[in-house]
Write a structure and sequence with these properties.
Helices cover 31% and strands 27% of the residues. It is built from three helices and four strands; from the N terminus they run βαββααβ. The chain has helices at residues 23-38, 65-72, 75-83; strands spanning 10-16, 43-50, 56-62, 93-98.
Length: 105
């Protein structure tokens, strides 16, 4: 008997605060992640928001931890993470967790 285990969707979300004078470049870098990330297998949602206080809020949902891990292993993400610190004021405020509400679809 073969059993099928449905993966649990995972979410990654957080705030990024640009250094003074770096908002435009940080916005450009973050926007450059949106479409390629949405096209990756296992991506369910990928959204970038800009807060009134100038912080950026990134929200991602992935079909499984394995899909998120594959995404993080791409050259796109590695290059982004290398360039990111020079544009941030402090460390990103990042949250991660398993999605407990049913994912529609």
């Amino acid at each position: 008997m073969t059993t099928s285990i449905t993966p649990t969707p995972v979410s990654l979300y957080g705030f990024l605060t640009p250094k003074p004078g770096h908002a435009d470049e940080l916005r450009r870098l973050l926007m450059g992640l949106v479409e390629p990330s949405r096209e990756r297998e296992g991506n369910l949602q990928y959204h970038l928001h800009e807060q009134e206080d100038g912080r950026f809020f990134l929200y991602e949902v992935w079909r499984s931890q394995e899909d998120l891990d594959r995404h993080h292993a791409t050259s796109l993400l590695r290059d982004f993470m290398t360039e990111l610190p020079q544009h941030l004021e402090g460390a990103p405020e990042v949250y991660f967790g398993a999605m407990r509400s049913p994912y529609p679809g």
